[in-house]
Q: What sequence folds into this?
């Protein structure tokens, strides 16, 4: 994959914060965009650039491979053309945009990837526990802790720094086949296929690194993926992000940038997500659908008349908004799946429980028993 450099500035103004708080947008415009908004804009533009560059590179590679294959000619035999499937007319101005975590994939794709890395000794178990705990807090509270985000960003960048983009893509393909393939929501995949059958583009939009997101999109037969872009030079990661992690306003800006580049009519587009944090993206398109929604998004969808699709079992859906401790068993089990011995799994659950207890003030052993009983 060719190296990428920083795009030329953030040219798209304030972004979409006014969608949620229109009364404050006028003040924000007078003061100019904040640093966070500029980073989100830059992340969105870089994500669209990277997604289209990957798409063009793969198309060129496919065309080159076809040209290199010479047809085999058998003399004195009539060559019968194989039957071809009818070509679906392309709908050039409509597209669908799918969030990944808990929308297309059960759980957090980056945790699934981290599990695969830990199994290959790229990560320590303690790193995995810490990362998993931050993800649990985010899923329960629905809010991102700035310190957690910054720490997670630095750890991720330190991991990829000096590695090749090709290596990350290769690891992504291996781990998808081993871990993620069985975690695709069949209902969400069917929704994506509905758009494909209508001749529309279908894009994933995620905070996951774009190289990994593209693997998921390719495996599912989708158009492509918009994801977080880590800067690279000559195919090697520098350890810096282009803009910021692609989430919230960044996702909305990526979708809007892609729409401009591809000539899409956003009023004819559809977006799917499980998280209230994706309201800027959902509000940008003509049709918004809440998939496996968190409590806040479910309420907003009801108020705005958005469609709701819930593919979880009743037990999983009932977990929306429950205390973090009740999910420790599930997280400990998911992370512990990379460990082969019972003692190590128990230790991992203890570590997660102790981490939760230190932040919640609960007794560690009581929480650990709850974890053990839930497995």
A:
């Amino acid at each position: 994959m060719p190296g990428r450099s920083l795009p030329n500035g953030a040219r798209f103004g304030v972004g979409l914060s006014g969608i949620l708080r229109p009364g404050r947008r006028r003040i924000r415009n007078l003061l100019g965009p904040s640093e966070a908004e500029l980073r989100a804009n830059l992340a969105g533009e870089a994500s669209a650039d990277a997604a289209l560059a990957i798409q063009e590179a793969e198309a060129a590679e496919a065309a080159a491979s076809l040209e290199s294959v010479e047809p085999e000619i058998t003399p004195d035999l009539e060559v019968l053309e194989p039957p071809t499937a009818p070509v679906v007319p392309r709908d050039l101005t409509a597209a669908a945009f799918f969030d990944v975590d808990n929308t297309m994939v059960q759980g957090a794709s980056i945790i699934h990837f981290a599990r695969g890395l830990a199994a290959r000794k790229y990560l320590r178990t303690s790193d995995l526990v810490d990362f998993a705990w931050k993800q649990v807090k985010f899923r329960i509270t629905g809010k991102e802790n700035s310190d957690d985000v910054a720490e997670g960003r630095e750890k991720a960048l330190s991991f990829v720094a000096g590695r090749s983009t090709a290596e990350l893509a290769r690891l992504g393909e291996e781990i998808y086949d081993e871990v993620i393939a069985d975690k695709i929501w069949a209902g969400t995949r069917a929704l994506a296929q509905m758009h494909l059958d209508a001749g529309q583009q279908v894009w994933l939009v995620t905070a996951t690194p774009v190289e990994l997101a593209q693997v998921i999109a390719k495996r599912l037969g989708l158009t492509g993926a918009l994801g977080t872009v880590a800067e690279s030079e000559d195919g090697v990661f520098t350890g810096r992000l282009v803009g910021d992690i692609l989430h919230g306003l960044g996702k909305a800006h990526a979708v809007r940038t892609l729409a401009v580049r591809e000539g899409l009519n956003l009023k004819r587009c559809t977006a799917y997500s499980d998280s209230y944090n994706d309201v800027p993206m959902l509000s940008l398109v003509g049709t918004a659908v809440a998939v496996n929604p968190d409590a806040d998004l479910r309420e907003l969808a009801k108020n705005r008349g958005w469609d709701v699709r819930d593919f979880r079992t009743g037990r999983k859906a009932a977990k929306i908004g429950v205390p973090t401790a009740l999910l420790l068993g599930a997280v400990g089990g998911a992370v512990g799946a990379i460990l082969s011995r019972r003692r190590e799994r128990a230790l991992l659950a203890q570590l997660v429980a102790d981490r939760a207890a230190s932040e919640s003030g609960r007794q560690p052993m009581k929480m650990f028993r709850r974890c053990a009983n839930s497995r």
Notes: The chain has a mean pLDDT of 76.
